[in-house]
Design brief:
Blueprint: H1 2-20, H2 49-52, E1 58-64, E2 67-74, E3 77-83, E4 96-98, E5 104-106, E6 111-113, E7 116-118, H3 122-127, E8 131-141, E9 166-167, E10 170-184, E11 194-208, E12 230-234, E13 237-241, H4 256-260, E14 265-266, E15 272-273, H5 285-288, H6 347-373, H7 377-380, E16 391-392, E17 399-400, H8 403-432
Parallel strand pairs: 10-14
Antiparallel strand pairs: 1-2, 2-3, 4-5, 6-7, 8-11, 8-15, 9-10, 10-11, 12-13, 16-17
């Protein structure tokens, strides 16, 4: 039973598709009030006669009261006759015809736009074959420092050179030269992320198109990427911070320079076609960055192009300006600016001051040591050890030679003193701890 119901549903769906498919949808255009000029010709007015219309005139229509007035212009002047054979009719716009339902259908190759039938490819035909620079959003990073740093979120979205993007409503193709420039914003968006974008050359086509999901990367009005974690503020800068429950996805793939073949520079152009003039029409980071904006897909602000590298590199000069290198031909000589350097260097004075300071510190250490070990002076004031020699007994009792024993006792006592000192130090350490 279930198999039968499933088969029946499939059959009904297929039958419905057959019924619907042959009937394309047309935008209904309402005709305007007036007279249909197609009625005003000699074949519709036999009473006019061939002698009146000599074939060289121009027929036209105009309303007169409740009737239709047809006329023609000839080299000899204007003549007309009143016609009552046809009532008022609706007039369809150019490039359309009146259908049986009383509305107008656009002819083949035309589409309805604002109540008119226009050629959708007309604007694209004027741009056909032109090269345009288009900015694509490649990804978003957590900082603007280190323009080629791998701190971007997830994977970079580098355009496919074999695709056909929809640029300004016209289908285009990449010229296969790859990225012309790659940029990283120095100002965060409202989500605390820094936009990474790239300029690519495309060749415009002559066919109109409607942007799809694959064209969001070149849409300046596309919402900026949201922060995967939490948005906060650090030192007055908006930041995107990850937490244990909402971590920031790690970067995937290679650095921007390896993905695009171009080392990134500091800027944030607006997504989409490069302006032909005005803000954003330059070639450097500052020239491509609008002065306004919020660090997102719409480009800008001016600070997104940076005010200094801070990473060992130098920002490019503005358009029409040359980077000044001292010592080069035509450039001023290199000079060392010593303004602000404190005093002059006197080596003898410096060495004496250093020696006096060291002596003062040694005296301070010596004084501190006397206070600690003052009670142990008795251990360091023992008489010096003299050499052993035999001695004579009184009353001619002979002599005694204890040297063999004394040297052994001295060796044993040396070890005992060392062990006692070690034990005493360990005791002090244990009490301190």
């Amino acid at each position: 039973m279930k198999r039968f119901l499933l088969t029946l549903c499939i059959a009904l769906a297929g039958f419905a598709s057959v019924l619907v498919a042959p009937f394309p949808a047309f935008a209904a255009i309402q005709p305007t009030s007036g007279f249909d000029t197609s009625y005003c010709n000699p074949s519709n007015f036999p009473q006019a006669g061939a002698g009146i219309y000599n074939g060289s005139g121009t027929w036209f229509c105009r309303p007169q009261g409740a009737n239709q007035n047809c006329g023609w212009r000839t080299p000899s002047g204007y003549e007309s006759m009143q016609c009552t054979a046809f009532a008022s009719a609706g007039v369809c716009p150019a490039n359309s015809t009146l259908n049986a339902s009383g509305t107008c259908d656009c002819q083949a190759g035309f589409a309805e736009s604002g109540g008119q039938c226009v050629n959708p490819n007309e604007a694209c035909q004027a741009e056909d074959g032109k090269l345009k620079t288009v900015n694509f959003t490649l990804g978003w990073a957590r900082s603007g420092a280190g323009v080629d740093a791998t701190d971007y979120i997830g994977e970079l979205n580098v355009p496919n050179m074999s695709s056909a993007p929809c640029v300004a409503g016209c289908r285009a193709t990449f010229d296969q030269s790859g990225a012309q420039d790659v940029w990283r914003s120095q100002e965060p968006s409202a989500q605390g992320l820094y936009r990474i974008s790239g300029d690519y050359l495309v060749r415009m086509g002559n066919v109109a198109c409607t942007p799809g999901d694959q064209d969001k990367a070149l849409d300046p009005n596309q919402p900026d990427k949201p922060c995967p974690g939490y948005v906060g503020t650090v030192n007055g800068k908006t930041v995107c911070v990850g937490t244990a429950d909402r971590p920031i996805p790690p970067p995937q793939g290679d650095a921007p320079s390896r993905e695009t073949g171009k080392p990134p520079d500091k800027a944030n152009p607006s997504a989409g076609p490069k302006p032909e003039s005005g803000e954003g029409s330059g070639n450097t980071g500052r020239g491509r960055t609008p002065t306004n904006g919020n660090g997102g897909n719409s480009g800008g602000p001016a600070g997104a192009a940076g005010t200094g590298s801070g990473d060992g590199t130098t920002d490019k000069p503005d358009d029409g300006k040359e980077q000044q290198n001292c010592g080069a031909p035509g450039q001023p000589p290199c000079k060392l600016d010593e303004s602000g350097t404190p005093g002059t260097f006197a080596p003898n004075t410096g060495v004496k001051d250093y020696k006096d300071k060291m002596d003062q510190q040694r005296d301070q250490i010596k004084g501190a040591g006397d206070g600690v070990f003052g009670g142990l002076n008795v251990f360091f004031s023992a008489p010096p050890v003299v050499g052993c020699s035999p001695f004579d007994l009184p009353n001619e009792m002979g002599s005694i030679d204890p040297c063999a024993v004394v040297d052994g006792v001295r060796a044993v006592m040396a070890y005992l003193w060392a062990i006692a000192a070690l034990w005493l130090c360990l005791g002090w350490i244990r009490e301190a701890v």
